[in-house]
Amino acid sequence: MPKVVIDKERCKACELCVGFCPQECLKLGEEMNSAGYFAVAFVKPESCKGCGVCAEMCPDMALEVWK
Q1: What's the CATH number of domain 3-66, 3.55.10.10, 3.40.50.720, 3.40.50.620, 3.30.70.20?
Q2: Which secondary-structure segment (H or E) carries 29?
């Protein structure tokens, strides 16, 4: 099963990954990072296909996709 690893400290909550995920596996989280942003959360791991679109769209390189 693919896994998305999110570096919550690098995330600036731009939500590009959320908008581009074809499986809707990500959403804005409830945990605030040290910069004051609500980092993205991986909420539907069972739906993830490991396509990597989320990681490609992230301007801050805060996501990694592992297959």
Answers
A1: 3.30.70.20
A2: strand 26-32
